[in-house]
C-alpha cells in the first residue's frame, strides 16, 4: 500500500514523538528523535520512543478512512453492529410472515415499509397529512384567550406528544433515587443564549420564522412583524434566564431547585400549576416534589401569559409543533433540508430511532449469550475485589474516606448485556398510523404517557431503557451507583472468548476498570453508596488530597501536544484519571511480567485510531477524552512495570521521572 509520509503522520499521530512529556526536561533532551520525513520512520518506532506507534503503526497503515473522519476499534465495532442491525431490519422487512400484533417484528416490518414509502413518494400520504396539519393550525388560530390557549397546549401534549413553551417531565430525585419527581421547564423554538449573544443568530431565527409564516399564507410584512414580536418576547425571557445553567456551567446543587407541591403552587400560582398538571394528565395527589431548574424564567413566562402576548404565544405554539414535526410534514409546510440518501437508509434510521428497544431485544437474542455474561460478571467481581485493595492501600485517603469508597463498591451493581424483554402489548400495533406523520405523533404520545405513568411506579427501572443493548458502550451511572456494559460492546475484539486473558484485560477489562473509577472521580464522588446525591459525604482532608492529585494530573497532561496543539488537561481530567485507574487495576490482575507485557500491548491496540488531522484538532478543543495516542503513552509511562518490561530509561523519549508519574491510588 503506497502512502505518503504526511499520511503516515496522520495515521499514527506519532505518539510521544509528537508529544512533549511533562516530566523533567532531562527526560527528552538527550534523545535523538527519528526524522518524520524519513521513509523508514515507522520502523524506528520502539516501546522506548513511542509505545502507541510501536504497537499500532503497521496496522494503521493498512487502514483507510473510506471517507470517514475517524476509524478505530470502537468505530469499526460500531459499524459492524450497525450492519447487523440493518440485516435484522432488512430480513424482517422482506418477510411475508404475518407477525403478531404489537410484536417487535410486526412494528419493525410496518414502520420500515411506511417510512420507505414516505421517502419514496410522500405525496401518497400528503392529502391525509394536510387535513391533520390544517386542523392543528385552525385549532391554534381559533384560540381567543389564554384559557383556550392552555387547553390547546394540553391537547398538543396528549394528542401529539408535543410540548409547546412549558413542559413537564418525570425524573428521579437525585437526593433519593427511589422517589419520582415532576420537573417543570420551558421549551422554546429558539436558543435563548444564541439570540442574546449573536445578532446573526437572531436574524437567522427571524428569517426562518418568516419562511414558515409564508407557508401559512401570511404576507411578507405581517410575517416579518410577527417574527420580530416573537423574538422581542424571547429577548425579554432571555433576560430572566440563567444562561449559566442552560450551558451546563453550574454545579448541580446550585440549580437543583426542589419545591414541595405547595411551594410550587405558591411560586407559579395555583391556577397555572393546576393547568400544567392537567396538561400532563396528572393529578395533584401524584406529586410530592417539583423540580424547577430555572424558577425566574418560568415566572417570567407565566407573567407574559396575557392577552397582549396572546398572538406571540399562538405563533410560538405553531412554530414549536411545526419544527418538532418538520421531517414528516406535507410539502406545503415542510422546511427541512432534503437529505441525499436512499429511502432504504432513511427507513432503517427511523426503525433504529423509534424502535430501538424492540430492535435491541432481537439483537441481544442473536448476538449475546450466557457464556459472555458469565465471563464478564466474573471479571467484574475480580475487578471490584482489586479496587478494594487499591483503595485500602491509597495513602492519600483517610480511614473514613476508604470506608466511604468501600461502601460504594459494596453496593455497586453491574448490568451486563441486555435487560429483560418487554411484555408485548397487541395495542402497540396501533402505533403505526396511516401516515408517517401520524406515526410520529403516536410514538411521541406514547413516550409522554409512559412518563406520566412512571411517576406512580416504584422499584427499579431498567437501565437498558436509557442505553440499549445494541449501543456500543459501557458507562458508570452515578445516580444509582451502577455500571452498564452493553451486549454490543461485548464482541470481538473488545471481548474475545477465544483469546488469552491478557488480551481481554487490555480491552474490556480496562474499560470496566475505567468505568468503575468514575464512581470516585470529582463528579461520582458526590453520590453515595445508594446512588443519592451527597456532595458533603467525603472528609475535607480527602477532598483536599484529591484536588492536589487532580492538579498534578492536569499539569501532567497539559505537557502533551498533538499536531502542535496542547492537550487540555483540565477538560480531559476525569477521563485521564479513569484511564490511569483502569490500567493500574488491570496490571495488578495480570500478575506475571509476561501477562503484563501482553496487557500493555492489548491496551494500546484497543486505542488504535485513524483520524483526519482537521478532525483531531477539532476534538482537542471540545472532547473530554484525550487523543488515543495520549491515552496510551501518557498512561503507560506512569507505571514502573512499563519501564521494567521494556527497559525504558532516562534519556528515552517515553521516560517520565518517577516524581512526575501519576497514580490514581
Q: Return the CATH class of the domain at 143-330.
A: Mainly Alpha
Spatial shape: globular
Low-confidence stretches: 1-38
The helix content is: 40-55%
The total strand number stands at 11
Task: Give the CATH topology of the domain at 143-330.
Answer: Neutral endopeptidase, domain 2
Computed Rg: 28 Å
What is the CATH architecture descriptor of the domain at 143-330? Orthogonal Bundle
Q: What's the main sheet like? A: 4 strands, mixed
- Sequence of strands across the biggest β-sheet: 2-3-5-4
The fraction of residues assigned to DSSP E strands is 5-15%
Helix-strand category = alpha+beta
Number of distinct helices? 28
Give a quick rundown of the structure.
The protein has 28 helices and 11 strands. The protein is of the alpha+beta class. It has a 4-stranded mixed sheet. Strands 6-8-7 form a 3-stranded mixed sheet, covered by helices on one side.
Task: Explain how this protein is built.
With 665 residues, this protein is an alpha+beta fold. The protein has a domain at 143-330: Neutral endopeptidase, domain 2. The protein has helices at residues 5-12, 26-29, 51-61, 73-94, 104-120, 123-141, 146-160, 192-197, 199-215, 220-238, 243-246, 252-255, 261-268, 270-279, 295-303, 310-325, 343-354, 356-367, 370-392, 399-411, 436-454, 501-517, 540-558, 573-590, 593-606, 613-622, 628-636, 640-646; strands at 70-72, 165-173, 176-187, 258-260, 289-291, 413-417, 474-477, 482-486, 561-562, 565-566, 609-611. Helix 19 (370-392) packs across helix 24 (573-590). The longest helix is centred in the middle third of the chain and has 23 residues, at 370-392.
Amino acid at each position: 500500500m503506497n502512502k505518503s509520509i504526511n499520511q503516515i503522520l496522520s495515521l499514527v499521530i506519532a505518539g510521544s514523538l509528537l508529544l512533549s512529556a511533562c516530566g523533567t526536561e532531562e527526560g527528552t533532551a538527550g534523545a535523538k528523535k527519528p526524522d518524520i520525513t524519513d521513509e523508514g520512520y515507522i520502523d524506528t518506532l520502539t516501546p522506548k520512543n513511542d509505545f502507541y506507534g510501536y504497537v499500532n503503526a503497521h496496522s494503521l497503515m493498512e487502514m483507510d478512512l473510506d471517507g470517514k473522519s475517524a476509524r478505530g476499534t470502537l468505530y469499526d465495532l460500531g459499524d459492524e453492529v450497525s450492519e447487523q442491525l440493518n440485516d435484522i431490519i432488512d430480513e424482517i422487512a422482506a418477510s411475508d410472515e404475518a407477525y403478531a400484533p404489537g410484536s417487535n417484528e410486526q412494528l419493525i416490518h410496518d414502520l420500515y415499509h411506511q417510512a420507505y414509502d414516505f421517502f419514496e413518494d410522500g405525496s401518497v400520504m400528503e392529502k391525509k397529512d394536510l387535513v391533520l396539519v390544517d386542523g392543528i393550525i385552525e385549532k391554534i388560530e381559533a384560540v381567543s384567550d389564554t384559557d383556550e390557549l392552555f387547553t390547546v397546549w394540553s391537547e398538543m401534549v396528549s394528542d401529539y406528544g408535543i410540548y409547546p413553551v412549558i413542559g413537564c417531565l418525570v425524573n428521579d430525585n437525585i437526593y433519593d433515587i427511589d422517589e419520582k419527581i415532576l420537573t417543570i421547564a420551558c421549551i422554546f423554538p429558539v436558543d435563548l443564549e444564541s439570540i442574546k449573544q449573536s445578532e446573526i443568530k437572531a436574524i437567522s431565527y427571524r428569517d426562518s420564522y418568516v419562511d414558515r409564516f409564508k407557508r401559512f399564507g401570511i404576507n411578507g410584512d405581517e410575517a416579518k412583524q410577527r417574527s420580530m414580536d416573537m423574538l422581542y418576547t424571547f429577548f425579554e425571557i432571555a433576560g430572566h434566564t440563567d444562561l449559566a445553567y442552560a450551558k451546563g456551567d453550574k454545579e448541580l446543587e446550585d440549580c437543583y431547585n426542589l419545591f414541595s407541591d405547595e411551594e410550587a403552587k405558591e411560586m407559579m400560582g395555583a391556577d397555572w400549576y393546576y393547568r400544567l398538571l392537567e396538561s400532563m394528565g396528572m393529578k395533584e395527589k401524584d406529586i410530592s416534589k417539583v423540580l424547577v431548574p430555572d424558577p425566574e424564567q418560568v415566572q417570567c413566562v407565566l407573567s407574559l401569559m396575557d392577552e397582549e402576548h396572546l398572538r406571540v404565544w399562538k405563533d410560538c405554539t405553531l412554530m414549536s409543533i411545526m419544527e418538532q414535526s418538520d421531517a414528516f410534514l406535507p410539502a406545503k409546510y415542510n422546511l427541512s433540508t432534503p437529505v441525499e440518501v436512499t429511502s432504504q437508509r432513511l427507513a432503517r434510521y427511523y426503525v433504529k430511532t423509534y424502535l430501538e428497544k424492540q430492535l435491541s431485544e432481537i439483537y441481544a437474542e442473536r448476538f449475546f449469550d450466557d457464556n459472555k455474561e458469565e465471563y464478564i460478571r466474573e471479571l467484574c467481581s475480580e475487578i471490584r475485589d482489586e479496587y478494594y485493595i487499591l483503595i485500602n492501600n491509597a495513602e492519600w485517603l483517610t480511614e473514613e474516606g476508604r470506608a466511604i469508597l468501600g461502601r460504594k463498591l459494596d453496593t455497586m451493581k453491574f448490568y451486563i448485556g441486555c435487560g429483560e424483554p418487554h411484555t408485548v402489548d397487541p395495542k402497540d400495533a396501533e402505533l403505526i398510523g396511516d401516515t408517517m406523520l401520524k406515526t410520529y405523533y403516536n410514538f411521541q404520545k406514547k413516550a409522554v404517557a409512559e412518563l406520566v405513568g412512571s411517576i406512580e411506579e416504584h422499584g427499579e427501572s431498567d437501565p437498558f431503557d436509557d442505553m440499549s443493548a445494541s449501543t456500543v458502550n459501557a458507562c458508570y451511572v452515578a445516580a444509582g451507583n451502577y455500571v452498564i456494559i452493553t451486549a454490543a460492546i461485548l464482541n470481538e475484539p473488545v471481548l474475545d472468548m477465544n483469546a488469552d486473558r491478557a488480551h481481554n484485560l487490555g480491552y474490556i477489562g480496562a474499560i470496566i476498570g475505567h468505568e468503575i473509577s468514575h464512581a470516585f472521580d470529582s463528579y461520582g464522588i458526590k453520590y453515595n453508596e445508594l446512588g443519592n446525591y451527597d456532595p458533603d459525604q467525603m472528609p475535607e482532608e480527602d477532598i483536599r488530597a484529591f484536588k492536589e492529585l487532580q492538579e498534578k494530573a492536569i499539569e501532567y497532561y497539559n505537557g502533551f501536544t498533538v499536531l502542535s496543539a496542547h492537550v487540555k488537561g483540565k477538560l480531559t481530567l476525569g477521563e485521564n484519571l479513569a484511564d490511569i485507574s483502569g490500567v493500574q487495576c488491570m496490571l495488578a490482575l495480570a500478575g506475571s511480567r509476561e501477562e503484563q507485557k501482553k496487557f500493555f500491548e492489548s491496551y494500546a491496540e484497543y486505542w488504535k485510531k485513524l483520524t483526519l488531522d482537521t478532525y483531531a484538532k477539532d476534538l482537542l478543543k471540545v472532547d473530554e477524552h484525550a487523543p488515543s495516542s495520549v491515552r496510551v503513552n501518557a498512561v503507560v509511562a506512569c507505571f514502573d512495570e512499563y519501564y521494567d518490561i521494556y527497559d525504558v530509561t532516562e534519556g528515552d523519549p517515553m521516560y517520565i521521572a518517577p516524581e512526575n508519574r501519576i497514580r490514581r491510588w
